[in-house]
Amino acid sequence: QVQLVESGGGLVQPGGSLRLSCAASGSSFSTYTMNWWRRAPGEQQRELVACVRTDGSTIYGHSVKGRFTISRDDAKSTVDLQMNSLKPEDTATYYCNARRNWGILNDYWGQGTQVTVPS
Predict the structure, then answer these.
(1) Sequence-ordered list of residues with C-beta below 8 angstroms from that of 76, at least 6 positions apart, any chain
(2) pLDDT digit string (tens) for the chain, length 119 residues
């Protein structure tokens, strides 16, 4: 079992920066792929923002590439999302997600943190 707690959301002006953090409790953090997802207001689907695999390799969503950076610290069981050059369309609830598939899918989610970039 993994519990995830996000922090760092808030209101920021366009062009500004925020850093989201996700702290994990439980065992074997280093064996999980860690993801940040977001759901924009009024949208049903979550959008994958960024992913960092167990080997440290990363994937970014097209809309955030070059502006956001995901990083993980396995010693501290944390994953961060540095968000720069924020735009109004980045407004969303951001969710931390831990995923591992070792024959059985282990999939854990945080409660979400709100990021608002006014237009």
Answers:
(1) 23
(2) 899 999 999 999 999 999 999 999 987 999 999 999 999 999 999 999 999 999 999 999 999 999 999 999 999 999 999 999 999 999 999 999 999 998 899 999 999 999 999 99
Three-state SS string over the chain comes to: CEEEEEECCEECCCCCCEEEEEEEEECCHHHCEEEEEEECCCCCCCEEEEEECCCCCEEECCCCCCCEEEEEECCCCEEEEEECCCCHHHCEEEEEEEEEECCCEEEEECCCEEEECCC
Contact 20, 94 (CB under 8 A): yes
Identify which of 115, 109, 110 has the alpha carbon closest to the alpha carbon of residue 93: 115
Residue with tokens 């945080």: 110
Q: Name the residue among 3, 15, 19, 5 with its Cα closest to residue 115.
A: 19
Instruction: Please say whether the dihedral angle defined by the alpha carbons of residues 36, 16, 77 and 110, taken in this order, is positive or negative.
Output: negative
